[in-house]
Amino acid sequence: MSSAIATPAAPAAWSAGESFYRVRGPLERADSPLARAARQPLMLGLFLNLQDISISSYPTSNTWTFDYNADIVRQGEALGFDLAFSRTQWLPKGGYDGEASLDSFVALGGMAAITKSILLISTIHVLYGPWHPLHLAKFGATLDHISKGRWGINIVTGHRAVEHEMFGWQRIEHDKRYTMAGELFDVLNRLWTADDNYSHESVHSAWKVSNGWITPKPLYGRPVLVTATGSQAGIDFASRYSDILFITSPGGAHIDSALATLPPHIDAIRSTAASVEREVRTLINPVIVSRNTEKETQAYLDALLDNPPRPKGASFGHGHYDSDAHAWRGRSDKTHKQGYGLGGNIEIIGTPEQVVEQFIALKRAGIDGLQLGFADFRADLQHFGENILPLMKSAGLRF
Fold it and tell me: What CATH number should be reported for the domain holding residue 331?
């Protein structure tokens, strides 16, 4: 039986005649790993660094290597974390903080064979190449079966001109990228669920599918889909296709500014999803700086800030590369408190008790999950598990 369901009418804000091919995804299937994770009051994830990222020259255990990151994922899984993913970037020589950068698609997919419960989300620039739908459909179905429904795609369409140019073309206009991605995922959803061969000739890209067929089908309709976005076009896209939106704080990295600006942003996301009779979950990426006392926490923060990253070409964020991303707009607004530049969407600094208070406030603001980053993943994740996670459970944020 096909898992496709009726498509609701398109909102007036969309182009005339625009629609989407909707399937019952893993969030709508009670027995899926994602649905089980979403039952947590606050989902917990790890936002890995599969590349050299320097927010400080203070010594840490961090490294881009697969073995290190696989160990961190297994450490998170042992603590009951729900998911893990990482960015992927395509930058010229000198563009990374260091010299190494693993691909998130391959690395997170590879972790499916060495984990048992944690969801693994691979960031894929779905328009670069361009990808052919049959490749993504087959690769996705294969990883879905290897992981038993725990693998998914963090959908990004590319915001830097330099990345598009690396693949031999000029950057595609912002909103058009989401139109192209919508067509791609309409086709992917059909390939993942169709009972017969499926054909399609792209309106927006050069590919076509003639009698396409994918088997086996994904276990829960399709792999988990996440969209990292802050624009209205991206939110419209994610509301139709994704289970999770990976968002930023419109007001900046400081927790006070985040808490002031997130509620209307999340309300708008939920309203957009409701207009097409869907629900989505929101995730945000805090960097956690914590020790057991305020004095120890301040000393750790000072050590990070007093040791700025050594120049290695471009610094984290790569601000000199032209970008049309909307998610970070407004974060330099001087009416909002700014953070320390530690690299996350928001910064959460304090003792374990203070960290949990900020988590509670984020939950009240509408956040459904946290993708955590740390200055030193190994040591800080251990501190989190021993000192913060028990308080989260006592506060009703985790089962």
Answer: 3.20.20.30
What distance in Å separates the CA atoms of residue 5 and residue 24, rounded to the nearest whole number? 7
Number of domains the chain is built from: 1
Q: How far is CA 41 from the centre of its chain?
A: 19
pTM of the model: 0.90
| Residue 63 main-chain phi, psi, to 5 deg | -155, 155
Q: What is d(CA 162, CA 41) in angstroms, rounded to the nearest whole number?
A: 40
- Domain range holding 357? 26-394
Is residue 6 situated within a structural domain? no
Q: Is 5 domain-assigned?
A: no
- Between CA 88 and CA 108 the distance in angstroms is 11
Q: 256 forms bridges with which residues in the sheet?
A: none
Q: What is the mean pLDDT of residues 302-321?
A: 69
Q: Would you say residue 369 has pLDDT above 80?
A: yes
In a domain? residue 20: no
Rg of the chain, C-alpha, whole Å: 20
Specify if 387 maps to a domain: yes
- 117, 64, 339, 265: CA torsion to nearest 10: -40
Quote the tokens at residue 232.
């209205």
Percent of the chain's residues with pLDDT above 90: 72
Strand 198-201 with 208-212, pairing: antiparallel
Per-residue pLDDT tens over the stretch 283-301:
999 999 999 999 999 999 9
